[in-house]
Design goal:
Number of domains: 1
Order of helices and strands: HHEEEHHEHEEHEEEEEHHEH
CATH architecture: 4-Layer Sandwich
Strand order of the largest sheet: 4-1-2-3-5-6-7
CATH class: Alpha Beta
Number of strands: 12
Distance between the termini: 44 Å
CATH topology: Metallo-beta-lactamase, Chain A
């Protein structure tokens, strides 16, 4: 009798409550966008030593925009905005531009991607860097109010690189960022303490390279490799062509593969052409 008497009040109330809870859960999900800072055109042998040497290809430069309930974050910021629209030689210089041949349009710079998805540069709370090479940390100075998450050894390598490494670090990308707020790491780090965004120490490509584990409700666990694994050939055993320490690089590749298997997740490469083209880039993964 009670249900019948109040049926016009109870049912809508339950329905509204369910809708509210569903919307709340959706808002609390981690969302991830994969985008690219244009492409680099160079010899594939640089990525896969002794394999496909002389094969010139255009490689995507992957970046990630990640929305967590506790803040918006980025994983890498791509090539500097000044490189856009044939501006490379005025910024990188003729040597680097000839070697890497960047192709980046202005609307492929990280601030343009943020705007496309409804965010502002000032919304970004954390910027996590795989490492500080010219195609991964180029727009650090766009985010003066963010917390910059980087391995301490990487900061040393970027500001005072060994001579044989100096070419891939462009000091102009971060010479005005010395007083930024850095979260300097020495190994793995769970950014929010909930297992959703975990920085992984994957040194080898550089002294302080780090990958990112992202746990998504529907997509599953992703391992954003950065340059720890350039391509599927590296995952299959091909030695990375550009690396600070080959031994550490191969250890990091093995580590990512073991974690991938443990979590039944996926590894996403930094410069994998076929994989990148198979992904969506105009909507988020959750």
């Amino acid at each position: 009798m009670l249900f019948k008497k109040n049926k016009f009040n109870i049912i809508p109330l339950i329905f509204v409550t369910l809708l509210f809870n569903t919307a709340l859960i959706a808002e609390e999900r981690v969302k991830l966008y994969q985008v690219s800072s244009g492409v680099l055109k160079f010899d594939k042998g640089w990525l896969t030593a002794m394999k496909d040497v002389g094969k010139i290809l255009e490689f995507p430069v992957a970046m990630y925009i990640i929305e967590h309930p506790r803040g918006l974050l980025l994983y890498d910021t791509g090539m500097n905005v000044a490189v856009s629209d044939d501006g490379c030689e005025n910024y990188w210089g003729k040597g680097l531009c000839s070697a890497f041949q960047p192709i980046q349009k202005r609307d492929e710079v990280i601030d343009s991607w943020l705007s496309k998805f409804g965010y502002k540069v000032s919304d970004v709370k954390y910027v996590i860097y795989s490492h500080m090479h010219l195609d991964h940390a180029g727009n650090m100075e766009m985010f003066p109010d963010a917390v910059h998450v980087v391995q301490k050894e990487e900061l040393k390598a970027a500001w005072w690189p060994e001579k044989y490494q100096a070419g891939a670090f462009v000091l102009k990308d971060y010479d005005d960022a010395r007083n930024f707020n850095y979260l300097q790491l020495d190994g793995d780090y769970d950014l929010f303490g909930d297992g959703k965004i975990v920085v992984l120490d994957t040194k080898g490509h550089t002294q302080g390279h780090q990958s990112l584990m992202v746990e998504l409700e529907n997509t599953g666990t992703l391992f954003l490799a950065g340059d720890a694994i350039y391509t599927p050939e590296n995952e299959s055993g091909a030695i990375p062509g550009i690396t600070w320490n080959t031994y550490e690089s191969m250890k990091s590749i093995d580590r990512l593969k073991m974690l991938r298997d443990t979590h039944q997740g996926e590894i996403w490469y930094s410069h994998g052409i076929e994989q990148y083209n198979s992904h969506k880039h105009d909507a988020y993964y959750d």
